[in-house]
Amino acid sequence: MYSKEETQRLKREFWVAFAEKYPRKWVLYDTKIKDFSFKFYVDNKKAQVLIDIEHRSDEKRNDFFEKMESLKNILEEEFVKNLVFEKNFTLENGKTISRIWVEKLGGGVSNRKYWDEIFDFFNDKMQSLEMFFLEYDDFIKDI
Question: Whole-structure pTM over 0.85, yes or no?
Answer without folding.
Answer: yes
